[in-house]
Amino acid sequence: MSIPRFTADAGVGEVAAAVAAHGVAIVERLVPPRVCDQLEAELAPHLEATAHGGDDFVGRHTRRTGALLAKAPSSVDLVAHPLVLDVATAVLWPKASSIQLHLTQAISIGPGETPQQLHRDQWCFDFFPFPDDVQIELSTIWALSDFTEGNGATRVVPDSHIDADPASFGPDDTEAAEMPRGSVVLYTGRTVHGGGANTTDSWRTGVNIDYVLGFLRQEENQYLSVPPEVARTLPEHVQRLMGYQMGAYALGYVDDLRDPIEVLRDDAVGAAAAPSFDPRR
Question: Which of 7, 99, 173, 244 is placed for a possible disulfide with 239 were both Cys, Cβ 3.0 to 4.6 Å?
Answer without folding.
Answer: 244
